[in-house]
Automatic annotation (TrEMBL):
Name used for this protein in its record: Putative negative regulator of RcsB-dependent stress response
Length: 79
């Protein structure tokens, strides 16, 4: 049982690192704010991280419409 818990912890930590890196790569280095995987990962992040990611994207892509999850209620301005 102890070995199973250890393997589960390793798998969960590994998944968190992989998805976290992929999300950060989208927010910090993507060529476009409309990357489908990046938008999905950003939408799954906790509120504070999602907000930080949206502000980072807004700073990088100032003249473009916000991606899904970063738009205000009108859908055309950044949150």
């Amino acid at each position: 049982m102890k070995k199973l818990v250890q393997v589960l912890c390793v798998v969960l930590i590994g998944a968190a690192v992989i998805f976290g890196f992929r999300w950060y790569r989208y927010v910090a280095f993507a060529d476009s704010p409309y990357d489908e995987v990046g938008i999905a990962l950003n939408g799954k992040m906790p509120g504070a991280l999602r907000s930080w990611g949206c502000h980072k994207l807004q700073a990088r892509f100032t003249g473009q419409l916000p991606p899904y999850g970063c738009a205000a209620t009108d859908g055309r301005s950044w949150m």
